[in-house]
Structures
1.
Amino acid sequence: MLRTKLSNIVNDVNTLLLPMVCFGCNARLNRGEKLLCTVCRHELPLTEYNFNVENGVDRIFYGRINIKKASSFLYFTEQGIVKNLIHQLKYRNQEQIGGFLGDWYGQILKENDFLKNIHYVIPVPLHKKKLKSRGYNQVALFAQKISEHINAEYLENNLIKTANTRTQTKKNRLSRWYDNRSLYEVIDPNLLKNKNILLVDDVITTGATMEICGQTLKNIEGTSIYITSMAVVT
């Protein structure tokens, strides 16, 4: 009891000296709030898509790649909380945001038993130069948390990116596909034979990156591909 009280006092002092702020609205966080204030957490635009019913993410990939199912956790818009979170995650060294979102989404997937037969959870990889520059793959913690909740194995470094390309946020679908068509390779295909794979990214826009990563995995005998992301562009 005394140790808990002392810990709370230390945390309160640290908060006074270095107040934590909400990544959504920059308001000061209260005790018990983590990364997002209560208001922003309730305002997060959850898609409520699942892996049982057809949804908007499925339709992105129709006629492009044969996958089992696709989904996404949040809606991404040009203004708003989700954009702020992703920006902080990717460009402001706030890697813990990925874990926070992955833990939340993973609990939803577990509670609804949506992905009980996945063998491997694989993040879309960064090229080694970008990984060294950023210090981490922004998708990694998100994917790891999901794998823990759905009782699947997290697997990185088997799917790799072979070239360091420029940002693709403003490229159209055709140019993205052209740039990505030979950018991803699998180091050990035998490991993935006849396995159910959940491929994970941060934001799905045109779907081109997921398409080519998924196709690289589909070239392996017997693989079934599921797709998900932190957010999907509306």
2.
Amino acid sequence: MIKLEGIEKMNDKQKLEYLLLCLEGQLSSESDPLANVSNASALIYAIIDRLNWAGFYFMRGEELVLGPFQGLPACNRIKLNTGVCGAAATTRKIQLVPNVHDFPGHIACDSASNSELVVPIIKNNKVYGVLDLDSPEFERFTELEVKYFERFVEKLNQYIDWDRI
């Protein structure tokens, strides 16, 4: 069971550690990949503050298609090499963007978003999609969060057969 009482008293590192602990509990008790990524996005949104969107896009052919998320409705499809998510999937590199308005080709699914962190989901050298986090704050995401969300995706990879999504 996820407990959120007292989370506001945790520092950023404690919240990130708690997020990984909750994710492990969720993944280890459920085998359905859709249920797991749905709850993964809900965990992020519940535990990590100052976000306006947290969710997944999955590869379908040569584009990313919207998966489970928390936040306002989002773009249904994103072409590779387009926007921050497309850049992460194409380059296979984490995208830490302090100001999305300075990112060439940024796609404004939510005009309130000002910074973004996107982690590609790569398993067995295949790109399956991306984990996308948006914030209305400029420079919201830190190097600490980059490391922890990379671990978050690694934890997902341990449990999820992405071919079933």
3.
Amino acid sequence: MKVHFIRSGERRYSMRIERGGLPVLVMDPAPGFDPDLPHDMVHFVVEAALGLKTGVFGQIAAGGDAGSFHVEAGGALSAKERQRAARKQVAKGAKLIKAQGRDGELSELAAFLFDIGWRSSTRPDSPAQRAALSEAERTRASLGADERARIDAAQPRVFEDFERLSKAWRELRTGEALILEWPSGHVI
């Protein structure tokens, strides 16, 4: 699966996901633009590092839509075929979301923890920063010991990937894309 993170404006990005034998999915605009690392790129890295098979990107790879992507307009499909594919996509996505189990929740919690942890080294001390770190401590305490151990073990890889991808993301101009392969995270 190829995930295109497209810098589509000054403070805007979109996503395009190509999956072998499945309809192309898009989200435009995608939420959570960040000049250093967009929210969905954080999820991508975290889910790959933790091996979450039913997080956002795992369930998209399995044929879902994560509840927020839609089938790309145009392309080789006729309007009728695209409508049928979209209906099947939504049904499959809903089924996969229901079956996510702990991976879906862990994806959100871990993405939050890694994002706060990575950014904390470059953010100045402020009431907002202290509040974010305090919330991260509460979130971490809510995890089981095995989940905390998984997160701790993945931290070096995640932070290294954040640095590498952040550098590449900041260098993009409007209209350019950073294309990542799921689940390896290799830049294509």
4.
Amino acid sequence: MKKLSSPWALGMLLLAVLLGAASLGLAKPRPRTLTIGMTYIPNVQFAPWYVAQERGYFREEGLEVKFDYRMDIDALQLVAAGQLDLAVAGGDQVITARAQGIPVSYLLTLYAKFPPAIVAKADSGIKSPRDLIGKRIGLPLYGTNLLAIKAILKKAGVAESQVQLVDVGYTQIPSLTAGKVDAVVGFANNEPVKLRAAGQAVNVIASWDYLNLVGHGLVTGEGQLKRSPELLRKMVRATQKGMRYALDEPDQTFAICLKYLPELGRDQQRIEKQVLYESLKLWENDYTRQHGLGRSDPKAWDESQRLMLELGLIKKTTPVRRLLQQQFLEAR
């Protein structure tokens, strides 16, 4: 056999080896596509995923991620059925779904502090839950906000019959400013910020001062857990990177968010930037500082289920080990 001694011959041999490897499927694999149900319109609250997209954290993990903004009340059913890969949803929604036999699990916490708060005008005299007796409270009469007001009233020893819950949907701000209600239930990182920006002084009763309940986070289906654990690990890892970057670089993070909110005017940008800063404060609590960003306290799940059962919001509880799947989270 003729000896391959020239550089040209050696180069051709190397090229042949590389082409052969590619033909055997050893080339870099194509990205795997995952779809996240955001269950809301584009918003700064989705900063970790916007950061992960723009800074290449998804790409580094071999993922192509699509954001689905359909405000679908059946998001968790779609996740359980595999029609969505993941969703951003409340811990209370996961508990409710499981109680109804819908197999979904919570992977990572975004809001380590339960975000709902009671908001009232500063001159209303409402500073504590007991000040709500005889008052009208506006909120959407379902979901996380409803759980919050029921739980806070119970904790404070105030019977629901002592207040008037008024269904105002998501019109909390105009309902309060117009005097249609005396207080509203919203998210601590949203309604108070926007009311103050409009010149309205407010009092805020934060739910985390009274309760240890579970906030919003990243959710997937039990089937996805069995089929694609490594994909979920990659998604969780990229999300954690996005969260860490946002906490370290809030100004740069807001600039990234603006790419997804191109319609915002200058005044709206100023308000939304403050909403982002207030949101970042909810991502950490004593538990996450001790155990790691994105981790959720199992005791909070026990307390959430107990309260929801007592309030008649669920008819049965689910073992926390089925509700909460934290094995994909990186250690501190």
